[in-house]
Each structure stands twice: as C-alpha cells, then as structure tokens.
Design goal:
Layout: H1 2-25, H2 31-36, E1 43-44, H3 50-66, E2 71-86, E3 88-103, E4 123-133, E5 138-148
Antiparallel strand pairs: 1-2, 2-3, 3-4, 4-5
Length: 149
C-alpha cells in the first residue's frame, strides 16, 4: 500500500525542487523582483501609458474639485506610478502638484502656467489610489493624501 503513494510523492517533490532551482538560478531574479511580479501584485507603470494618464487626469480633477483654493493645480511631475490588476485596475500615483495662474472659472487647465511669485507658489506632494473598471466605464478615487512639498 505504501508503494503506490511513494511514486506520486517522489514526483511531486522532484517537481517542487526543480521549480525552486529554476527560480533561484534565473538571471535577474531577486526576492524583490519575485514579490513584485506576483499575480495581483502592484508593478511599476510607465507614466506615459494611456491608463496612467487617464488615472492621473481623474485624480487631479477630483483634487481640484475638493480644493478650496481659488486656483487650479496641475501635475509638475509624476514621482512614481504603479498599477495592480484586480477586478479592474488599481493605479497608485505619487505626484508633485503645483498651483497654476488659472482660476477655477477658466476651463483649459493644460495651458495654465505655474505661479512664479513666491507668495502665490504652492507645491504639494500627493499620493492617489485610483480604481478603474474599464468595461463598466467606472473610475473612482479610493485614497488621496497630500502634504506640502
């Protein structure tokens, strides 16, 4: 009776050992890389990727709506962008934001220059988590936190 169980267990052990060795000797593999490439794990994203840009625009729009400032703010630079596949996509953005010369009554934010007068300049570092479900056309700001830069 022990004989029929022994063969599958030995094969399973050999398979596990082979997989462990393959991961250990793969070029460029480290614990950090292995963790970040797990299914469902957050990965670094290209700032110029369309989904990242849409998430950034949404986050900035929500930021400006919630702000009591008379002026619009826009991104100075994206410090870090990450994405995570879930039931949709999570985007994690760290963004340096600056106050523009455009008041909230002006519609086109893209062409607004940043304030250069010291008493009107304001830089803020924000972390945003945006969740999108593209096939349902849904986007939501899950988390937002900002501090003066």
């Amino acid at each position: 009776m022990a004989g029929p169980l022994r063969t599958p267990l030995l094969l399973l052990a050999a398979l596990a050992l082979t997989l462990a060795l393959a991961v250990a000797v793969s070029p460029g593999t480290s614990r950090r890389n292995a963790k970040s490439s797990l299914v469902g794990g957050a990965l670094d994203a290209d700032v110029n990727e369309e989904g990242v840009q849409q998430a950034l625009n949404f986050a900035l729009s929500e930021y400006n709506k919630a702000s009591n400032d008379a002026y619009h703010s826009r991104a100075i630079r994206v410090v870090r962008a990450r994405k995570q596949v879930v039931a949709g996509m999570n985007y994690f953005l760290e963004v340096e934001i600056g106050r523009t010369t455009c008041t909230k009554s002006q519609p086109n934010l893209d062409s607004c220059p940043f304030h250069d007068q010291p008493h009107l300049m304001r830089k803020t570092l924000c972390s945003f988590q945006i969740h999108t479900v593209p096939w349902l056309g849904e986007t939501s700001l899950v988390k937002s936190s900002c501090q003066d830069a």
